[in-house]
Amino acid sequence: MIKAGIIGSTGYAGQELVRILLGHKDAEIVWYGSRSYVDEAYSSVYGNMFEIVDAACMDDNLDELCKKADVIFTATPQGYLAGVINENILENAKVIDLSADFRLKDTDVYEKWYKIDHKAKQYIDEAVYGLCELNRESIKGARLVANPGCYTTTSILSLYPLVREHMVDTDTIVIDAKSGTSGAGRSAKLANLYCEVNESIKAYGVTTHRHTPEIEEQLGYAFLAGNTSKDLSTVGQECISDKNAGGNPLLINFTPHLVPMNRGILATCYAKLNDKYTYDDVKAVYDKYYKNEQFIRVLNKGVMPETRWVEGSNYVDINFVIDERTGRIVVCGALDNMVKGAAGQAVQNMNLIFGLPENEGLLMPPVFP
Amino acid sequence: MIKAGIIGSTGYAGQELVRILLGHKDAEIVWYGSRSYVDEAYSSVYGNMFEIVDAACMDDNLDELCKKADVIFTATPQGYLAGVINENILENAKVIDLSADFRLKDTDVYEKWYKIDHKAKQYIDEAVYGLCELNRESIKGARLVANPGCYTTTSILSLYPLVREHMVDTDTIVIDAKSGTSGAGRSAKLANLYCEVNESIKAYGVTTHRHTPEIEEQLGYAFLAGNTSKDLSTVGQECISDKNAGGNPLLINFTPHLVPMNRGILATCYAKLNDKYTYDDVKAVYDKYYKNEQFIRVLNKGVMPETRWVEGSNYVDINFVIDERTGRIVVCGALDNMVKGAAGQAVQNMNLIFGLPENEGLLMPPVFP
Amino acid sequence: MIKAGIIGSTGYAGQELVRILLGHKDAEIVWYGSRSYVDEAYSSVYGNMFEIVDAACMDDNLDELCKKADVIFTATPQGYLAGVINENILENAKVIDLSADFRLKDTDVYEKWYKIDHKAKQYIDEAVYGLCELNRESIKGARLVANPGCYTTTSILSLYPLVREHMVDTDTIVIDAKSGTSGAGRSAKLANLYCEVNESIKAYGVTTHRHTPEIEEQLGYAFLAGNTSKDLSTVGQECISDKNAGGNPLLINFTPHLVPMNRGILATCYAKLNDKYTYDDVKAVYDKYYKNEQFIRVLNKGVMPETRWVEGSNYVDINFVIDERTGRIVVCGALDNMVKGAAGQAVQNMNLIFGLPENEGLLMPPVFP
Amino acid sequence: MIKAGIIGSTGYAGQELVRILLGHKDAEIVWYGSRSYVDEAYSSVYGNMFEIVDAACMDDNLDELCKKADVIFTATPQGYLAGVINENILENAKVIDLSADFRLKDTDVYEKWYKIDHKAKQYIDEAVYGLCELNRESIKGARLVANPGCYTTTSILSLYPLVREHMVDTDTIVIDAKSGTSGAGRSAKLANLYCEVNESIKAYGVTTHRHTPEIEEQLGYAFLAGNTSKDLSTVGQECISDKNAGGNPLLINFTPHLVPMNRGILATCYAKLNDKYTYDDVKAVYDKYYKNEQFIRVLNKGVMPETRWVEGSNYVDINFVIDERTGRIVVCGALDNMVKGAAGQAVQNMNLIFGLPENEGLLMPPVFP
Predict the structure, then answer these.
(1) What is the domain class of B2-148+340-353 according to CATH?
(2) Matching CATH topology for D2-149+340-353 and D151-336?
(3) DSSP H/E element including D161
(4) Its family (chains A, B, C, D) (predicted)?
């Protein structure tokens, strides 16, 4: 039985981790960390867990927790993990970080977009970017996994085959993403009140959203990997060790939108095709990379992803349309930001690290309606 | 492995049965019945099931299906099952009916409220009302189970201990219930369009909703059972065999409301207390009946049920407040109409019939947010 | 041109006052009061008012404001107005208070339910309860109007004819009310976050909601008024001057619920009829009181109120069903909590005070969908 | 008093026309046309109009209606008006068509995208495209106005200054649009049921939506008009008369999305800038075209449009961000699809035709929340 501790278990992503781990037959939760609710019953913070979780929330203390847990999930604000991580922790437990602290290999980029100093640069090389389908082998041996962002997972998986196969002009990529409101977290902000979000849609963080460089970095690696058999993590390492070889080969426009719904992300991606590819040409490439991926569903021709069809599950639904008139391809990807976009992918990473079947605890079908 | 066939698998309740049975380790679905989508891929009707369910929808034919299935779930319109049921079917398979055909012991009442002739009165005696917590033993031996309505389950479970213990004046019961829109089914009616339901609440079927007599009948049995150890089903049989002994000892006001949300039912129940009971008095009675019921959660003092805390799960949350000023008790019950109010309870009935652990396949925690 | 000042103009009710007064041809807003946003452009707080309202928010100062304004609306927390009101203010301007400070004639009741000391008891006698349809004449001469609560307006208007005509047993009244989320105000509380409210319904303040005594007091006056021609305000005065003569002749159960929608209140009211009244009997009584009330719409037989049909307007929709089986009547009332339940009624009060047509600025049809 | 008849008054757009015209002091509705509800009270179809509209629905008959009305609004399915329009009608009444029949000057394009034959090509030249801000003078003298589509109005107004001033590369335009569900109309389709739309977002009509050629045609005219003083309508006429001179100078990608809300459209538009323009450069151009347009609000720097801020009103909110990293500009436009996207603009056109103040009946502030 894998002992799991959760730092930040009272945020939305932390609570989703709880929900998923409760259904995982080889893991048990040993620590419900929470700064805000120390000593309060977990089920008083999340009423759904009444009579299911008996534990009280505990103070966050990674140095202690690491001795009791085999794996620690940190569902914490940016900067927290980088501020406390050390060798003691990593020697005692695997760490899967749901924050952005170790996602970006280029700390200059991190500090520029996040506007905080990175306090644990010595672990950036070691950290593996936990996009399971693209970095499976590297994740298996990792001590520290940087679980990708929700927008990022959707965007990268949607475009990855096209970028890796150099089928699109990387200078023309536009990603217009839409997210449910749980992505904004559980803090009491006026902008997230029911009446402020309901019956409205808006773009936010236009040209400045922090998931932008994460998408660019990973798609950049995909582009550089090209027709080699390298995974993205390996390319990332090479770019770091030889900065000149890397650099960022692509810049994108990424625009997130807030949608009046609880869960779900839809990314609508646009790019110019490098050639007059047919549907079959493109389908073949998506099949090449995703045919054996059980959590990636490339839909039937003509069926576009809808977030309702993935809610509560670890699936990513993807499909595309080629516009012969404009020479562009439109790719849509949909996932549940709480599952494949956060807690589900974190558990998928745990499964990889501990040598379990990758889908363990993750086979729940989407809940509809 | 229990072989399960579903008639009406493309309605909302039918689809929820599919979702739950897919996670049940001792059952497999052998037949996806559907009148409207014969030969179409099930996953083209419900996109969430893409790459999960490969089967196509099949024509409904209970006489054939009963030979292939150990249990048949009928999630069909009123009158369907009564029109086709026969001894051949019941000898070959257990039948769990999610419609109202066999819920009411009094067929006069059925015909009056449903305005259709009952075509299988010979099976009414045999049918067991499948409210698991109240009729557990009778269900175990049943061939035909009448799965209760969603409003009904919420209302009965909320008031049952008070009525059975004769703590409330049965002439003063008012049940004001609120339901998500999935309860209205998946047919294309103008009244159920997004823009007609969204941003509004209304009462409907005021004084005429068909779940009224079902609640009255079962609470009536509870009242008659009183301090005996009989289950409701047994009392029901007695009432039938001696009409004079039964009659309906209580009449209620039941008012359903349509709420702009997908899932969930909240029943707010009012009744005059027969005495100056304290919180502890009443709590003791709820504990007496529900303490060992894992799917019934009587909440902590002061915490009232909210439908969000049961969504996607088989739980019923219940709590009450005594109003000393008016001498009334206010009891609230909440459940997910698709699960404990339909498909989950149906599976719970299946588990009872087949001697499986009652909670098998039903332990998923509520999904939030 | 009536000069209007608004204290608390940046709350939801305050903003709705702005919206309505902007369309009022005989009033202009001279002061946008706000504690939280002093010196900020009003349109930066409410983007809908961009290029419509140019003013900045000003500090609340009733003693100054009263010299610039003919009427002051206070859309402020409980206790605010009672803490500052004085003769200077009332001599200079009419005050229409949207808080509860002057709604209850019995200050013991006020202090018990609101748990704050009342600091201006000397003005309670003078204050007129601003339910326009019931206190029209008293309002016309008032200096200080207590604008009724949203739940209260719905509940009282729904039951008023029945209570005044002694057609129902006042000991059996149950009011089950449902409100959109704007009623909770614009403060940043976790419980009002989008993801906490959406896809859920709950009862709150069960047996303890502060609108309960307000409903009881006014319906009590209605009962006492009986077949006299007195308005409720007059009866209230009499009760105050002779406490023994008054007392509260009725106690009710009032249960509010939070509904995932922005606007709207639906009150479903239950009571035992004192006799076997027919539909026509009851209809005649509603017609007697409401036939000439343009903002009260008693719907056609069989059509029950829905909040969508009154959204954005000053209408109250009412209808009833008699349940012969139980001897109860079920009355539903629906209004927009922001308009007839707050700002619209406040403007209606202003019109009455200033001798304008009562409907001026209030004739906008409901907005649908 | 202008006498207005409405064909299709029981659709959502038709009903919004009713709502707006009821508040218009120089117009009265003389005919509530409806195929589906002939002889039924209008207020039984739309409960909000109870006691406001007394009329019953009448059969559609333009040849008769044109004698009773000064202006006819046709809120009808594609092909209807083209099938019945004739000289008798146009001689007797002005016609403002909310369908697409006369929006496209190129009937080949119409027949290709709409897949129906155009039956009144003789009136295409005469019809004026009713985007008021861009074709004001032409509209004033028109007999037949083609009221623009909702997506179209948002998209064109968002990009118009940039295209007309040749500031963007017209080969790089991507428009990602999001619409509330009222845009789908009031027909009972399974896809528009509450539970199918709620808690989900999807793209639809990817690369094939019929508003695409309309946007292309009008932005094409804008591009051709360039720094002349011509309005779009005039350029359109020139293109028609000399097909070679016209042709479509730009092709775009337009992707609509369905959002779980009633009203509102947000268009997020992307294009490569032709030069290193600053914020001030671009702002100057938007000011040049829109500074005096009262219904177009170019927001303050850094404030992006949200649909909630325009709901119920005739405003279009627009703003932009320049992305120096990618050389792209991101422009967002928001409006209420029922008002500026349909009925409001139709009334604005009516005002222009009849020489009334352009804003008459259209000054209602947005309703929030």
Answers:
(1) alpha beta
(2) no
(3) helix D150-164
(4) Belongs to the NAGSA dehydrogenase family. Type 1 subfamily.
Of D66, D150, D269, D332, which one is the catalytic site residue?
D150
For the purposes of burial, counting CB atoms within 10 Å of the CB of C144, is it exposed (0-12), middle (13-18) or buried (19 or more)?
buried
Give the best residue of C151, C201, C253, C307 to mutate against chain B (max B CB count within 10 A): C201
Contact check, Cβ <8 Å, D12/B195: yes
Q: Is the model's pTM score more than 0.90? A: yes
Q: What CATH superfamily is the domain A151-337? A: Dihydrodipicolinate Reductase; domain 2 (3.30.360.10)
Pick from A208, A335, A329: which is nearest to A267 by CA?
A335
> Domain C151-336 classified CATH 3.30.360.10?
yes
D186 touches chain B (CB under 8 A): yes
Give 3-state DSSP helix, strand, coil % of chain D, rounded to 5. Answer: 40, 20, 40
**With an 8 Å Cβ cutoff, are A189 and C188 in contact?**
yes
Largest Cα–Cα distance of chain A, in whole Å? 62
Give the gap in angstroms from C-alpha D267 to the nearest C-alpha of chain C. Answer: 18
Interface chains of chain A (3 or more CB pairs under 8 Å) = B, C, D
Burial class (CB in 10 A: 0-12, 13-18, 19+), C357: exposed
CB contact under 8 A, D365 and C309: no
Mutate to test the interface with B, among C190, C326, C329, C331 (most CBs of B within 10 A): C326
CA atoms within 13 A on the CB side of A132: 26
- In chain C, what are the domain boundaries? 2-149+340-353, 151-336
Report the distance separating Cα A197 and Cα D300, nearest Å.
21
Domain at A2-147+340-353, CATH homologous superfamily: NAD(P)-binding Rossmann-like Domain (3.40.50.720)
State the average pLDDT over residues D232-241. 82
Q: Is the peptide bond before A249 cis (omega within 30 degrees of 0)?
A: no
The residue with tokens 């990817």 is D206
Q: Does B114 touch chain D (CB under 8 A)?
A: no
Q: What is the pLDDT of residues A126-167, one digit of tens each?
A: 999 999 999 999 999 999 999 999 999 999 999 999 999 999
Q: Which chains touch B (3 or more CB pairs under 8 A)?
A: A, C, D
Instruction: Name residues whose C-beta falls within 8 Å of residue D54's C-beta, 6 or more positions apart in sequence.
Output: D41, D43
Residue C264 gets which letter from DSSP?
-
Interchain pair A330, D263: CB under 8 A: no
How many Cβ atoms from other residues are within 10 Å of residue B363's Cβ? 15
- pLDDT average, residue stretch A3-28: 98
Q: How confident is the model at residue A239 (pLDDT cuts 50, 70, 90)?
A: confident
Residues B150, B239, B269, B332: which is the catalytic one?
B150
pLDDT of residue D245: 46
Q: And the tokens for A222?
A: 């995909």
With bands split at pLDDT 50, 70 and 90, how would you rate the model's confidence at D313? very high
Annotate A233-261 with DSSP letters as a single string. Answer: HHHHHHHHHTTTT-S-----EEEEEE-SS
Judge whether B261 is closer than 8 Å to chain A, CB to CB: no
Give the CATH superfamily of D2-149+340-353: NAD(P)-binding Rossmann-like Domain (3.40.50.720)
Positions in chain C whose pLDDT score sits under 50: 244-246
For B88-113, the pLDDT digits (tens) are 999 999 999 999 999 999 889 999 99
> Quick one: DSSP state of residue C65?
H
Contact between chains at D198 and B261 (C-beta distance less than 8 A): yes
Say which amino acid occupies C4: A
Using CB atoms, pick whichever of A23, A48, A297 lies closest to residue B368. Answer: A48
> Environment class of residue C234 by beta-carbon count within 10 Å: exposed (0-12), middle (13-18) or buried (19+)?
middle
Instruction: Tell me, yes or no, if D19 comes closer than 8 A to chain C by beta carbon.
Output: yes
When computed from its CA atoms, the radius of gyration of chain D, rounded to whole angstroms, is 20
ipTM over cut 0.85: yes
Whether A196 sits inside 8 A of C194 (CB atoms) is yes
